Amino acid sequence: MSAAEQPAAVLEVREVTKRYGHGRRDTLRALDGVDLTLHRGEILALVGESGSGKSTLAKILAGSTSQTSGQVLCDGVEITARRHSTARRRIQMVFQDPYSSLNPRMTVRSALSEVLRVHRVVPREQIAEELSRLMSLVGLDDSALDAYPSQFSGGQRQRIAIARALAVRPDILIADEPVSALDVSVQATILDLFESLRSELGLSVLFIAHNLAVVQHLADRIAVMYLGRIAEVAQTDTLFASPEHPYTQALIASVPRMRPRDLEQPPALDGEPPSPIHLPTGCRFNPRCAYAQPTCLIDEPALERVAEGHSVACWFAGQLQQAPTKQSEEFA
Amino acid sequence: MSVVALSRTVEPLLSVQHLTIGIPSSGGGHATLVRDVSFEVGPGVRYGLVGESGSGKSMTLKAIAGLLPRGVEVLEGEIHFDGDDVLTMSPHERRRIMGPRMAMIFQEPMTALNPTTRVGKQIAEGPRRHLGLSKADAQELAVDMIRRTGIPDPARRARAYPHELSGGLRQRIMIAMALSCKPALVLCDEPTTALDVTVQDQVLRLLAQLCDDMGSALTFVTHDLAVVSQTCSRLSVMYAGRIMEEGNVREVYEAPQHPYTEALFQSAPDFDDPGRRLAPIPGLPPSLTDPPPGCPFAPRCQYAIESCSTGSKPLVEVRHRHLSACDLADQIFGGTR
Amino acid sequence: MTTFSLTHRFRPSRREARPAARRLRPWYQNRSLVAGLVIVCIMVLLAVLAPVLAPYNPIKQNLNEALQGPSGAHWLGTDKLGRDVLSRLLYGARVDLRIGFLAVIIPFVVGTILGAIAGYFGGWLDIIIMRIVDVFYAFPLFLLVIALVFVLGPGESSIYLAIALVSWVSYCKIVRGEVIVARQQEYVQAARLGGLNNARVLGRHIGPNVISQAITYAMSDIVMDIMVIVTLGYLGLGITPPTAEWGSMIADAQEFITTLWWMAVVPGVAVVITGLGLSLIGDGLTDLLSPERRK
Amino acid sequence: MLSRLKFVPMRLLQAVPVAFGVTLVVFFMVHLIPGNPAESILGAQATPAKVAALTDQMGLNQPVVQQYWHFLSNLAHGNLGESYTYQVPVLTLVWQRAPVTLLLVAYSVVLMLIISIPLSMLAASRPGHVRDHAVRVIPLVGLGMPQFWVGVMLLLVFAVGTGWFPVGGYGDTMMDHLWYLFLPALTLAISISPVIIRSLRASMLNVLESDYVATARSKGAGGRSLFAGHVLRNAIIPAVSIVGVNLGYLVGGTLVIEKVFAIPGLGSMLIESIFARDFPSVQAVALFVAVFVVLVGVLTDVVYTLLDPRVDLTQRMNA
Amino acid sequence: ASSSTKSGGASKSAGAPVHGGNLTIARAQDAKSMNNILTFDNSSIFIFEQIMEPLFTVTADGKATKPLLATGYKVSADKKTYTINLRKGVKFSTGKEMTSADVKFSIDQDTKHASTGWGFINSAIQQVQAAGKYTVVIKLKHAWAPLIADLALFSNAIVPNNYDGKTMAEFYQAPVGTGPFKWGQWKRGEYLKLVANTGYWQKGKPYLDSVTWNVVPDSNTRKLQVQGGQADIDEYPDWSTFKSLGTGSNVIAKTFPSTELDYLAFNEKKKPFQDVHVRRAISAMIDRSAINKAVLFGNGTPANSLLMPGVPFYQKSTPGIMKNDALAKKELAASSVPKGFSTTLLIPSGDASKLSTAQIIQNDLQQYNIKVTIKQLDPTANHNAQQNMQYDMGLSAWTMDIPDPDEWTSFAIDPDGGAKSAYTNYRSAEAIKLNRQAQQSVDHSTRAELYNQLQDVVAHDAPFAFLYYAPYAYGVSDKVQNFNVTPLGNYPLTDVWKSK
Ligand SMILES: Nc1ncnc2c1ncn2[C@@H]1O[C@H](COP(=O)(O)OP(=O)(O)OP(=O)(O)O)[C@@H](O)[C@H]1O
Ligand SMILES: Nc1ncnc2c1ncn2[C@@H]1O[C@H](COP(=O)(O)OP(=O)(O)OP(=O)(O)O)[C@@H](O)[C@H]1O
Ligand SMILES: [Mg+2]
Ligand SMILES: [Mg+2]
Question: Looking at ligand 1, which atom is closest to the CA of residue A58?
Answer without folding.
Answer: 18
